[in-house]
Fold these 3 entries.
Entry 1:
Amino acid sequence: MKDHYLHKPVSWIGLLNRKIHPEACLGKSTVSAEKAVIVYWVGALILTIGIRLYLFTNYYTINPDGVRYIEAARHFWEGKWLEGLASFYPPLFPLMIALIFPVVGDWEIAGQVWPFILGVLILLPLFGLLRRVYGLRVAQVALFFYGVSLYLARLSLEVRTEIPYIFFLILTLYLLRRGLESGRSLTFFFIGMCSALAYLIRPEGLLLIPVGVFFLIFQKWFADRVERNWLKSSIVVLGFVLFSAPYVLYLKWDTGDWLLSRKTGYQLSEGLAKHDAETAELRLKKSDRVSISHLISSRPLTYAKKVFIDAFRAFGFYLQALHYSYLPFLFIGWFFFFRGKFWVKDEFLLIAVVFLHLAVVSLFYVTRRYEVALAALSLGWVAAGYLTIEGYFQSSWGKRSGLITAFILGLFAIGTLPKTLQPIGWDKLYLREAGLYLKQKPGNPTILTPNGRVAFYAAGQNQIRVVQQEDFPASLAAQEGDYLALSDGALTKLASRLNDYGWFLDREFSSNDETDKFFVFRRMKI
């Protein structure tokens, strides 16, 4: 299945009839293996860094989740540990932001640094994992597909947890493959540690433990020393528990319940709200007060309907996260993987993670961003599918195959790069402009707004009060403030009453296509 399967080019029919890996259609390179590896690495590194630097220079507005991560990071940096841990999200990513903030001196950049760095460093464990699973050639080609991947590239510049989580996910799976080869106990301890770090970034990291343990125990059908796999599994669990227990114990102390995350209950209520109008009321509650068991037991039929529908939606989001230009290569790679006894192949570990992840997110809440991690795990199949096509044309067209391969790559680039290189947050630039406009107001005024991004950019010497939109309009009369910042949606509900409360339009901001508007009001002093 790996590099020792490389042979001279074979015909497409022969490739289908023989039980060989798609890499078998490749010819041996005339360049030395060492130089070829260096060339691929340098090329993939330049491509990966170049695209991300371009996106960094075309980044305009922070995302809503990023505002919350930075808010928690500020608490940690100020020494308010309980406030930081009380965040809606797990604590590791805000801690990472707080650690780097003194170096960069800007909170937004501090939130971007780790996704950028880890988005490049992923190349190392990704290459190591795919090389052990597929062989050198597939691993090399997969790095280029990673570099231009739509969501993997763009999320490397967002203040979000996807890329840090994917880094530890890939690193954990790489260590698992390496541990199976070396058998060293310390490697399995590091597997547990890395999976705990993934969990402390995103709750989905908890999935790595059952996947790792299952895969180790599954090896008993193929390993000579079964008893050692049970020992390895115990070491993995020990490493996870040692690093995750403090946060789990804190949640128990803070909420009174055994929780894996404050986020999971809220996510379940969000998912159910799409199928049950009554559940929408729960989304406004604190997430750590929403009982998962109560939600499921009180609405069993609705929950069953949600899981059934979301199972299909999760798979659809997975394909979207990978992006349509990758799908032909993916399906060809899957074709060769699922032929024969796929459960004994090295890729079985990856497909187990993919389908377990899809199954679990369908139990709670599905969205495209949650499936981006699976896009990274699928790059081996994508690369294998591409190499199969390349090998087919080499065997059928000879020297003319280069033109056809270039044409295929041109179509792929046209379908991928324009979307990958789109400016980040350009459509929400007007929110940044509104916030910066309010920030420069003299006299340290009090600013009321339901928009977290505007509040983030307006922060400075001002007094910022983030008012929940559902509290309008009563809060406008009750709360004192000098400026009020509202979206056009909120304004629609309040337009007839703003003047009664003494608010008058100060300035209007709009998106580039003028479909969205944002308004700043000033309170007239009597």
Entry 2:
Amino acid sequence: MLDRKKILVRGVNWIGDAVMTLPSFRVLRSEYRDSEIHLMGKRWIAPVFGKDPNIDRFVEYKTEYTGVIGKLSASGDLRKGGYDSAFLFQNAFDAAILAYLSGIPERIGYNRDGRGFLLSRGVPVTAETKRLHHVLYYLNLLKGAGLKTVYRLPWIYLERRERIKAAEVLEGLCRPIIVLNPGATYGSAKRWPEESYAALSAMIIRRLGGSVVLTGSEAERGMADKITGMIDQDLTAADRVMNLAGITSLRDLVAILSQADAVVSNDSGPMHLAYAVGAPLVTIFGSTDPALTGPPSCVRPEDKGFDTEIEFGLKDVVLKTDLECSPCFERKCPRGDVLCLRQITPEEVFDALSQIIPAKRAVFFDRDGILCHDADYLNRMEDLKVFPDVKTLTKLKDKGFLLIGVSNQSGIARGIVAREFAERVNGIFLERYGFDAFYYCPHHPDDNCACRKPSPGMALRARSDFNIDLRSSIVVGDKGTDMELARNIGAEAILVRTGKDSSSDYADRVFNNLSEVVGYILEK
């Protein structure tokens, strides 16, 4: 861990790029645990970082900061901040000169665009650097600065109330609920045709019995209205089609995406927002290159020498046509026909969507206090006392449920519990009691990970691994954090009075032991 500092990060200006810097902020927080980390950026990227514990303050890059007078004003404002270091994720010359004028002694950025003389440490840019996926591009900057970099999936922090509010907005829609994002701010060369989105919507409603939710900016409202108008009127009932384009804030949109059964999107800001909340995703690429800006399946950290730690699961499919002219990186198609997008058919997108829509049911179980006595950091096999009625859980498999363990094990990070011991204990439930999988979070609470309950990371990984429909599943636990997890993923929450808590405001039902839980589920 490095010395305590006051750090300014000059962020990037677009939503998608902002999402792709999220793993880098987690690296900075890990390395500078006791430091203040401030992010400077345009106001419209701020919601991406709302509630993010890795950032202490957002500093708006104001419109009046442009021009020579504006730079002097901005540098004066930043001097008051007393920053020790500046990390420049933005490539622009502007970012480097502002850090220089602000008197920040340590200025770290890529040595490009003629700004090397303004940096105290310029990280070289090679041809290989420019071919990195953008998530790795930002991590590589930190790696070049000597920080210990670990690739983690980008993660947007949502509060429980935001998730619940989004679930209430979608309440009443037929499931599966598929969010469609037909827009792309960059230009029309990234937009799958509107008639294709309309045809896909009809397939979702007719073949899946589901519903579609159209999203977009205020400027894209007309596009969403046009798509809605193309769908047969007999399919556009209120429980089948919802048009939210132009009427949601960015945070509201993020929460809506977190509650979707799947998302279909062009290469756009909402596409990046979708995978950063773990939503199953189909992405349609035209003029751009998924190897540079695609969803997580396109990132190859191990191939590029980065350590990796994946805390939650994600299913994503990328659809792209192989044409000589693609990717062209143009805003408008030079050919005028956007053939790279038109050759991707609604049937092809529907088939890809069908592969990732969650379908199975699961019961998620906390371990200590539910499956075995809570020994308060169980670390000796002689202290493992499995509850006798655990053997009755296999009856749930006959009813079609998967059995999934999800356990916070911060004792590993605290040095109290060996990781191998925790895995050995979990293995007992896999081998003897019919569990299908057992996930655990080994992190310290201060690590701000995506997997520690009540965060949904472990449940999202299970969804990805087993195609689990979280909203038809159940969470069984003995603590408020277990019940909050259930609320976060839309599952039924069952509290059992065999562990820490005897009640919870978030529990749907409370039972005295596992036998009662099994009886209730079998009668559902």
Entry 3:
Amino acid sequence: MFANTNFHFLVGLIGLFALAGCSSTQMEQQVPSNGAAQASDSPNFVIIFIDDEGIGDVGAYGATGFQTPNIDRLAAEGMRFTNYYSASSICSPSRAGLLTGCYPQRVSMPRVLFPMARKGLNEAETTLGELVRTKGYKTSLIGKWHLGHQKRFLPLQHGFDEFLGLPYSNDMWPVGFDGEPISTDVPTTAAADSPFGDETTYPKWKVECRPLPLIDGNEAIEEITTLAQQDELTTRYTERAVDFINRNAENPFLLYIPHTMAHVPLAVSKRFRGKSEQGLYGDVMMELDWSVGQITAALEANGLTENTVVLFTTDNGPWLSYGTHGGSNGGYREGKISVFEGGFRVPGIIKWPAVIPAGTVRNQVVSSIDIFPTVADIIGAELPELPIDGVSLLPLLSGESTAEVRETFYYYDLENLNAIRHGDWKYVFPHNYRTTNGMLPGKDGFPGRVRPVEFPGGLFNLRQDPGERDNLAKHFPEKVAELKALADGMRQRLGDKERGVVGTEIRPPALLPAPDASTTN
């Protein structure tokens, strides 16, 4: 939509907005007179993507029991969004959405990929890495990939010059909740994506899979078999990130850091173990905040702060069934694996001193799928020929405080469209889900119990009732009809398996042939 914006014209607009609210001296401090406009033609990008951290796990959003001063500083010096949505409430889809600018269903990434999967993100899709490389950027991915673990699907084949990290989630190994290897004769569940729910029963894939491979480039350099090895992941990622910044200080770059933490099993280095009031989860949050501080310090040391766009966000809401090892939904309803607000609404902070005034708060609805077209807009890159779903946030970032970049957001649960937001209104369709409410919570790395719920459908005004407690459907039937019609239009495009609708715009994933007829994906 905005991919061909002339950036010099944009900087002129920024100056006009700035004149409305500050003196010329103040404006010189925000936009230096030494050619910042020219430098901003190719800003660096740092995307920090935390796993399973809830919106209530950041100080700027109300966290308690631990401190996140470095993340809070990003918010104080940049822009904090109050209605920022991940592309999904689970791992693989949320990453697909961020990297392609598409709802995950469009690119056939609606489900979490498990170690037996023989599919990945299609090579025909353009990722953020491939997008910025058209403009000469260096690219690095450090952390959790989770869009296909076969060599053909790894980051180096999707636009990244460097990769250090895990191919999938850190619980996808044959180790139990107690940190001990799982016996091959332990009771197992049949379905690959069954919730754990019972500490004596594991999904079949978990018992049969191999230890976690730590990959550098395209090759495994280490097998992670113990929690002690996982304790060092955040430190190792951070050191590599700082090294990448130092090596590329003279080049425009994109650094994408999808941390392994705070996905269970939780792991933290000795320097942070026992440091928080909240226990191990708080310790992990403090170490992740330290990592943010190390990365921003490296930018500062190289003179890159002013012209680097730093995004901090998370892949989905907290995994509430893990109780003391899960995060906070900040008072929203439910968490990970849910279409309620606690599953999708996450922290979203962007700092870009050359453009964004410090301490800005935006209440407009935005999403991780909007990052791709925003980056394209900033650097003047052409959008891919294949359709995407995101819209550019550049009007918001550059000072148009009333800009409405998106009015509608769709909440998919796997292949099913189970909720829609339009303006302040959200309709949640009748569907079945699992909740921890009223059940014994998880403790010390063991998951708690969940119970099934049949939700009958409901209309909520999210401005007045962000916790989705007051069902207004019977009072506003015309609003229900309006949202249902919008949802039906999206179903025609991206499908709805439960309702028997096959989308006309779904693109295929990349697939490897099954080794034999008995193997399925």
